[in-house]
Hints:
Blueprint: H1 2-24, H2 31-48, H3 62-82, H4 84-100, H5 104-107, H6 115-139, H7 141-151, H8 166-182, H9 191-205, H10 212-228, H11 242-260, H12 264-267, H13 271-277, H14 298-302, H15 329-334, E1 342-344, E2 350-352, H16 356-360
Antiparallel strand pairs: 1-2
Helix pairs in contact: 1-3, 1-4, 2-9, 3-8, 4-8, 6-7, 6-8, 10-11
The protein binds zinc ion (2 copies).
Amino acid sequence: MEHYFNLFINGYKGYFNYLWNDITNPSWHSYFYWLIIVSAAFFVLEVVIPWRKKQSIPRKDFWLDTFYMFFNFFLFSLIIYNAASDVVVNLFNDGILSMTGINLKALNPMQTWPLWAILLIGMLVRDFVQWWIHRLLHKSDFLWEFHKVHHSVEEMGFAAQLRYHWMENVVYRSLEYIPLALMGIGLYDFFIIHIFALAWGHYNHANITVSGRLTGGIVGGLIGILIANSLVDITLLNNPTLITQLLTIGGCIAIGAFLLGPFMKMIFNSPEMHIWHHSYHLPSDRRDGINFGLTLAIWDYLFDTAYVPHNGRAIKLGFQGMDQFPSDFIGQNLNGIRKKPEIVFKGGPKKRLPTRKEIDNPVHIPVEGEE
Ligand SMILES: [Zn+2]
Ligand SMILES: [Zn+2]
């Protein structure tokens, strides 16, 4: 046990130094500055090409969500990744080893794979695990109390992505890190995927709407940059000239726009899809939620949880009972932890707050005299 404890403590100690270094030494590998750059880019897009033209700038709760961004993405999420996850992964691996004699870490066939393949598989696995965790956050009444924070957004904008209860960092990061760490992917290796997921999450929540051809071209262009510069173990070009590099990137943009373009909104999540996830009114046969995807949309289409009935530009957002939900950071982050407040039902005695299922099925709401 002391072994795990030391791993935990060392993770934290090392990580505070890492965070400080990340802020004081700007570099291409700095989470802090990437968060600022990506956020500033989406802020400009929302000003220049807004989807909901009447939405104010800054929108409702913009500053609250900006605080959440730095708290959740930079401070909390990375610390949990680094510290708790090491412990979880070692406990998990050692547990399997002692029960079955199988060392999952040592068996990993990806140890000799090129980095691009590891990152691609890592991204798919991570997104798939996150999709299931997100479903669980909606399915479980206990976890839904925490997840309500994210769904308390009333006006959608890029920063809303990172408005979520700190407990979600613990749940997501710990669970998703087990397969990743067993695959041999560390936080540093995962940098590209992590920033890509951050940018795509900003896009899903942003007050913009763009065509699949444009997002396809952007994805193509990013792949083109990796190929042209022989990054992440891609060795297609040998000492290319600048012209060859530019042609490669241009070609990849064209391929992305024309081949991926028509399918982009089925492959990747989008503002037009994710806005429905935040819908106040859910279809009667899908009370546990719709469109759970984070970066990718394919899981929702594969498992039949996709729901985009029409352009949801200005639908009402939130959940039933929102008017009683705290609107400040402290109140929201204590939600789910402290005892649920009691309310008085119309004409009835003091009762606890009804759960989501009880609101949906009024038959189950306790009535006067019922225990
Ligand atoms: Zn959700
Ligand atoms: Zn969301």
